[in-house]
Amino acid sequence: MDNTTFSPTALGSYRVLDMTDEKGFLCGRLLADLGADVIKVEPPGGDRARGQGPFFRGAPLPESSMAWWAFNVNKRGITLNISSGDGRKLFTELVKGVDFLIESFAPGYLDGLGLGYEALRSLSPGLIMVSITPFGQEGPYARYQATDLVLQAMGGFMNVTGYEDGPPMRIGNPNAYLHAGAEACAAALIASHHRAATGEGQHVDVSAQQCVVWTLMESNPTWDISRKIVRRAGNVYNEPSPPMRRINHWPCKDGQVGYANYGGPIFARRSERFYRMMQEKDGAQVDRLLEKDWLNNQEGQRLMTQQDLDDEAEVMGAFFLRHTKEELYDWSIEEKFMLTPVNTPEELLASPQIKAREYMVEMDHPDLAARVPYPGAFVQMSETPCQMRRKPPRIGEHNQEIYMGQLGLSREELTELRSAGVI
Amino acid sequence: MDKQIFEGVKVADFTWVGVGPITTKNLADHGATVVRIESHTHLDTLRVAPPFKDGVPGVDRSAFVADYNSSKYGVSLDLNKPKGIEIARRFVLWADVVAESFSPKAMVKWGLDYESARKIKPDIIYFSASQQGHGGPHGGFIGFGMMMASLAGFGHLTGWPDRLPAIPYGAYTDFISPFYGSIALVAALDHRRKTGLGQHLDLSQLECGIQFLAPVQLDYAVNGREWCRVGNRDPSAAPHNAYPCKGNDAWCAIAVFTDEEWAAFCRVLGGPEWTREERFSTLRNRRRSEEEMDRLIGQWTLDYTPREVMEMMQGAGVASGVVQSAQDQFDDPQVRHRDFFQYLDHPVIGRHAYDGFSFELSKTPGKLRSAGPCLGQHNELVYKEILGMTDDEIGDLMAEGVITTEE
């Protein structure tokens, strides 16, 4: 690795080979946002995930998949068929030139091609190879088939999400592999910290199932030390220990708002201010709420009762129904109260906060004569800002640049490989 | 045991609740020296959140707060006292990384904001975790993950369209942001190693959440199409749901995307008459008759346990999985195979389970070294060995309430 040239990005000196499908796209995108040169490798004809909508202007074409764009922006793109002998040779050449290899093949697939971690390590001892799979490389379920739904089930998220009188539910957009991609990126950089000190690479084995388990908050500790199970209850948070039903999503005049009162010093003053405001705005009967000792009626102190929450719900619920999301959020901001609208995509994009922080970044797609706004930096870094530098690549867009420019192949060789279906 | 990856990296951790502590846990469990600075006068909300040991509340009895603070030292310090600020500044001088999740105003008031911190330690890496980021009209918004999940759009997408949204369980964005936070911190450490420069990292929980919703946002921005909640449905799959099984609140998820998978699925069911009906013959037909199909599948699954359904489906190559409760999670042979839950001895709670690692590092595996600290558990150790105080000094500071104690 050559670290003598400093770049204004955090990871500008690193090169990454990204062999993932939708299970691992996000990992490479995050490294790329931080400045790494990420080369996305697709099979000839493109990733299968390019068949996944939503599509640009609704056209179901491989070059129009916005589900693919969203997590492959900022990468360069090449094609390669690693199941052919020539493809394997090119692959090992590419691996020699990179610091990270990310892949999400079924466990054992690369080993079967003679391209597993042990083989690659002998070519490049400093290589950090990151493998993202549903359940990890080994173990009784390692060969199981999985999708987002299956992982949200096996990871326990669905059991605690959904209505009391209906089936367990997932969130409506696939999230399990995004958790896996983000954790994989963290793991890759942790391994990189070790390599910087020792020169030693290693293999990182990520289980998407366990990344979902990580989202379960106090549900697992509650079983572990109290032997109680958290049950899903729709818009209500159903706390098992001590038992308490706390409304989280409330209907309002034009949709829903999110609000939950946990009492104690964080909530007490805010609640009082908000109750008084409710009284001023339209004469809500809040005396009973003001009399309560919310400061000491704190969650976990066993002083807050279901009756306290029910009394509040009666007054609050009626107040919310008389007002719009926008009104309620404005007042929440003014009064430093903890309430937010349940936003639709349109409402989110209108947020003055998102605008003020210039979070969405428009990227040019010259081939489509369009500018497309992407969610931008995941963090603001004062010295090495995340950068949106490249629109997502077209299929094989950088084949010449990389195979000829970096690997030194001739134009004839490239043509030959193309007609042989290698690239 | 071999040296851990972040051995020698020092973190002064002023954060609380979820995002900050999980972010620094990721460093602590890989060897960083993380000192969590808390106080009895301004308790970490999770210290008063259940589950408690024996169901009895107490600041040192919550397994919830313990989980996110493994491998850390815990001290108590009152930042609202001038001497407390002085000591906090000594932690800044000691640290490579300062992590905080207070309001920007409070940190300026205390002289502990980034600009002040870099005067103390020019190459400090200063990590701020907040709800909506610093600056902007909603920069000072105080709240927690459930609200950011609503604001980002997860709430809108969870449940049935004709009912109130169901809550995406927990404080959902609290479990997206910390991994982004750890990525930023380790990247900043790498940059400092190469350049000697520290920096400010400003992490917005809302913005981290929106990252996961990028395709939904693109669909709106480009096509004007607004996604709404659709239960468990997926435009590319049917069946695609959780089905009721034998047992109490027992369910198994099944996802069928291709025609081959549908054929395999039908074989598992023994090819009953209804599976051959025209209205279920293609994905589009199945999507149109999904409610009726789900009812018929549910009649079949009811005769089996979730695990039996999963094993039959997986045996035929159909993606399927038990909808696992917390209890199932602890019994899951795959989770056990990977030793996900790590058991540590807590001074008050006793031996209990911690969330471990979703990833295994082949050469330098992480290790949870100690249970989440009791409030002020390591006062003596840290104030003596890290800040070089004498017993007398510590005694005086305790008497003055600068080092806080239980009254």
Roughly how much helix do the residues of chain A carry, as a percent range? 25-40%
Radius of gyration of chain A: 26 Å
The proportion of strand residues of chain A reads: 15-25%
Q: Just give the CATH class of the largest domain in chain B.
A: Alpha Beta
What is the fourth-level CATH superfamily of the largest domain in chain A? Crotonobetainyl-coa:carnitine coa-transferase, domain 1
By DSSP (H or I, 4+ residues per run), the number of helices of chain A equals 17
Q: How many domains in all of chain B?
A: 2
Strand content of chain B: 5-15%
The end-to-end distance of chain A, rounded to whole angstroms, is 27 Å
Q: In angstroms, what separates the terminal alpha carbons of chain B?
A: 40 Å
Helical percentage of chain B = 25-40%
Regions of chain B with pLDDT < 50 over 5+ consecutive residues? none
CATH class group of the largest domain in chain A:
Alpha Beta
Kindly report the CATH topology of the largest domain in chain B: Rossmann fold
Q: What is CATH's topology name of the largest domain in chain A?
A: Rossmann fold
Query: Which pair of protein chains has the largest interface, and what are the residue counts?
Result: A-B, 159 and 162 residues
Q: Which structural class do the helices and strands of chain B define? A: alpha/beta
Count of helical segments of chain B?
17
Q: Strand order across the biggest sheet of chain A?
A: 3-2-1-4-5-6
Overall shape of chain B: it is elongated
Oligomer category: heterodimer
Short description:
The complex is a heterodimer of chains A (423) and B (407). Chain A has 423 residues and is an alpha/beta fold. Chain A is 38% helix and 16% strand.
